[in-house]
Amino acid sequence: MFTNYSRSYFVSHRDFLPEEAALASVAASLSGLDWNYTIARHIDRDLHERLLSFDASLLSGFVIVLPLISSGYFYTARTIVTAAAIDESLEETRTWLVSALAEADDTEATV
User: Quick one: which of 23, 98, 103, 106 could link to 35 by a disulfide (CB 3.0–4.6 Å)?
Assistant: First the structure.
């Protein structure tokens, strides 16, 4: 799992985990929705890893935002997942997701 999803992190730091290194050069040339789209697959993968241990019947609050995340529409995904009714066992995952999406969002539509 990534430790940071922010474009500014990838632009300003030079000490990366191996799986993060490729994004450093990309971050310098992309911004806005293009950056969101680029980092989206990493957030999506990390979210799926966090959700693996839960029963599928509990995941409806997250399933509805997966297309938004993979398309880079982080603000809309955050808004929906924040308002979604979820099982309390998923609250830590929701908190992580909202934070990761806010951190990664490089568009002007931020909360």
Answer: 106
pLDDT at 30: 86
pLDDT of residue 111: 47
Look at residues 97, 96, 50 and name the one whose alpha carbon lies nearest to residue 74. Answer: 97
The low-confidence residues of the chain, meaning pLDDT below 70, are 108-111
Assigned token pair, 74: 């982080």
Confirm whether pTM is higher than 0.90.
Answer: no
- Cβ atoms of 81 and 95 closer than 8 Å: no
Tell which residue, 105, 100, 95, has the closest CA to residue 45.
100
**In the 8-state DSSP scheme, what is residue 89?**
G
13 three-class SS: coil
Give me 2's structure tokens: 């990534």
Instruction: State both tokens at 29.
Output: 């040339």
Q: Give the DSSP H or E segment for 78.
A: helix 74-83
